[in-house]
UniProtKB/TrEMBL annotation:
Presence of the UniProt keyword Cell cycle in the record: no
Domain of life: Bacteria
Source organism per UniProt: Rhizomicrobium palustre
Sorted UniProt keywords: DNA-binding
Protein name in the entry: Starvation-inducible DNA-binding protein
CDD domains the UniProt entry points to: DPS
PANTHER family: DNA PROTECTION DURING STARVATION PROTEIN, GENERAL STRESS PROTEIN 20U
Family note: Belongs to the Dps family.
Pfam families for this protein: Ferritin
Ranges of residues in domain Ferritin/DPS: 47-185
Record has DNA-binding as a keyword: yes
Length: 200
């Protein structure tokens, strides 16, 4: 017996073009999709994803700031490392934004929104010494990594294990970048006092 495959707009799955129009749930725009996660779960995931999209765009930019302005005897190694960190943050932004789209949300990834929403501490424009940059980027990676771990637990709790898995993947990548950056710190340089500058 031939299988009937539904196509968008066909009567067999009840999905019409009109249903693909996004609607507002609170302040989050969400469109219907055949994804079987409930609208309530998808809305919570989109909210969490966009929060981290803003922060990871900030992280990407902070690492570029360090890449451009670093000075010191290990210039080439650290200059290149910060460029790698920025590139990885850009990859995570892409993963987060496209997961948002897959759940029927709108990826809110403009610089304008990142400035308003990022939970990272603003990066100091007066930093030039390579060890201070290592301290600053370490602090930003650690803060973002902490929040991503919490987001993974949260999304698993409200029922979106795939988003939880994405956050876990990003968390693992951030931990790796943090290891690379911290490995460039002079022994004893990163102290609670020095880190306090980069904490909110
Ligand atoms: Fe460059």
């Amino acid at each position: 017996m031939a299988r009937i495959i539904s196509t968008p707009g066909s009567e067999s799955d009840g999905f019409t073009d009109q249903m693909s129009v996004p609607k507002a749930i609170g302040n989050i725009m969400i469109r219907p999709t055949r994804n079987t996660l409930s609208e309530n779960i998808r809305t919570q995931s989109v909210d969490l994803l966009n929060k981290h999209l803003a922060a990871v765009i900030d992280l990407q930019s902070q690492a570029k700031q360090a890449h451009w302005n670093v000075q010191g005897p290990n210039f080439i190694a650290i200059h290149n490392l910060f460029d790698t960190v920025s590139g990885e943050a850009g990859n995570y932004a892409d993963l987060i934004a496209e997961r948002t789209r897959g759940l029927g949300g709108i990826a809110e990834g403009t610089i304008h929104l990142a400035v308003r929403r990022s939970f990272l501490v603003p990066y100091g424009l007066d930093i030039s010494d390579e060890q201070e940059h290592v301290c600053g980027i370490s602090a930003a990676l650690a803060a973002f990594g902490q929040s991503v771990r919490e987001a993974s637990d949260q999304s698993a709790d409200f029922g979106d294990t795939s988003t939880a898995d994405l956050f876990t993947e990003i968390s693992r990548g951030i931990d790796h970048q943090l290891w690379l950056v911290e490995s460039h710190a002079e022994p004893g340089y990163i102290t609670p006092h020095r880190l306090s500058r980069f904490r909110s």
